[in-house]
Amino acid sequence: MVATINDVAKLANVSKSTVSNVFSKKKYISPELTEKVLAAAKELNFQTNYFARTLATKTSKIIGISFEANENFNSQFQLNIIKGILSVCAKQGYYLLIEPTGKGRDDYLPMDGMIKLNPSTDEQVFDTVPHVWVGLPPENELGQVCFVDNDNQLISQELTSMMSRKHRKIVYLNTYENTTVAPERYKGYLKEINEKKLDNLHFYTPKDALLEDFAYHKAKELLLLDNPVDAFILDSDLMALAIYKLASELDLQIPEDFSVAVFYSSINVNNIFKPELTSVDLNEYELGKTAAQLLIQQLQSNELIIPNCINISGSIKVTSSVKI
């Protein structure tokens, strides 16, 4: 015979509501009582009825994560964000549901709230469940959505400023223009090179191109000029892999012939770069953690959290791939 919540309450010598709160985590239950309830549930092989609890509480305890997983999907960066989200959800008793199309299909999936990663310039705000974005919303959605982000414009300006100490022809190979982060980083680059009166050598990755393929061919074109460029700022380590390969093919040395820095490099691949790659620590774990905290605050208060924008600081890790 299948054990019920009443059976667990009787064996643990507690009320039915105490058993319910242990499993739903809606109210605080002392560690001692929680241990008694869990021990009784284990002895009776009790399993909570998820769908019954959802109907009764009108909450699924599920948070959705929406992002577009395409061939240029930077899995390590997104994974670190998701780890941060998971760390908060695990403590608060929430499940995670991955929605990898990037369409934010919150209209029929059983979610209490949604976290959107890496928004594009044509993104629209979800209107059926509370939501938080990791990344800057499109301009027409600002003020309507709570979001967490780095100050990408400032980081880009600082990265360009560092490069300009020893270099005059600084190329910036950016990601796709339809991402909201790309124009922000371009603004920082443009501000710095205008102040230093340098040439604007910024290029967006074409819509249908792979990041590494675009970086390889554009860099080759620029390095074979009569007056070649002497520094590259890149979107990610995917581009850097292509540039390092190209340097070897052209018998060029980094940083003697040109310097290289990236906005993001995953820790588990950085040790393959010789010389070690200069990169920005974007604190992606903290981005995810903060986004989850903000969303759960909204779910518990039923109000938009103010301020509706939180900046997570990033820091440049300067290594031997840059001449400074």
UniProtKB/TrEMBL annotation:
InterPro entries: HTH_LacI, LacI/GalR-like_sensor, Lambda_DNA-bd_dom_sf, Peripla_BP_I. Keywords: DNA-binding, Transcription, Transcription regulation. It comes from Ignavigranum ruoffiae. One of its GO terms (molecular function) is DNA-binding transcription factor activity. PANTHER family: HTH-TYPE TRANSCRIPTIONAL REGULATOR GALS, LACI-RELATED TRANSCRIPTIONAL REPRESSOR. Gene3D superfamilies: 3.40.50.2300, lambda repressor-like DNA-binding domains. Residues 3-57 form the HTH lacI-type domain. The keyword DNA-binding applies. Pfam families: LacI (PF00356), Peripla_BP_3 (PF13377). This is DNA-binding transcriptional regulator, LacI/PurR family.
